[in-house]
Amino acid sequence: MLTTTYDGPGSSELRRRAAQEAAAFLHGLPVSRDPAAPLRACTEAMSQATTPAEVHALTELAAGGEEAGLIVLRNLLRAAGIRCREQGHAQLAARYDRTSDLLEIADRALFQLGVDLLASAYNAGPDRANPPPASVGYDEGEST
Fold first, then answer.
1. How far apart are the C-alpha atoms of 86 and 82, rounded to whole Å?
2. Is the Cβ–Cβ distance between 42 and 61 less than 8 Å?
3. H helices of 32-89, where?
4. Closest Cα partner for 129 from 116, 141, 138, 110?
5. What is the pTM of this model?
6. Counting Cβ atoms within 10 Å, is residue 105 exposed (0-12), middle (13-18) or buried (19+)?
7. How far is CA 121 from CA 82, 91, 124, in A?
8. Residues 100 and 74: beta-carbon distance below 8 Å
9. At CA 70, angle to CA 65 and CA 71, rounded to 5?
10. What is the pLDDT of residues 92-142, one digit of tens each?
């Protein structure tokens, strides 16, 4: 993993400064102060799930589809990569892009896991037609 080494403030101080600087900007946005609340609710409800269908439904609600947490976070990281690239930080943009690719892989793996869970529950066997990808290649010069 590429990291930046410098002789400056630590990560806690950098995050504190950024939060302070961005406070007025964030205050004016319709952004939840607790964006993970729906995911936590699904996690808490998981202990009450008694069937594979209920487990799958909670997982799908939290992580499946274009409007779920995982893909929304992937899209946020892609947007951050674009902004970094526009601001002349190509290496940081590439790191955001690679991280968003990992969430794409996780999304595909979770989809397949859900199918396999349901197939197992309904004795249909796992879906071998669309196995999850082993890895995703990434071209450093590729833009999203």
1. 6
2. yes
3. 37-46, 52-63, 69-86
4. 116
5. 0.71
6. middle
7. 42, 45, 8
8. yes
9. 55
10. 999 999 999 999 999 899 889 988 999 999 886 555 665 555 544 444 444
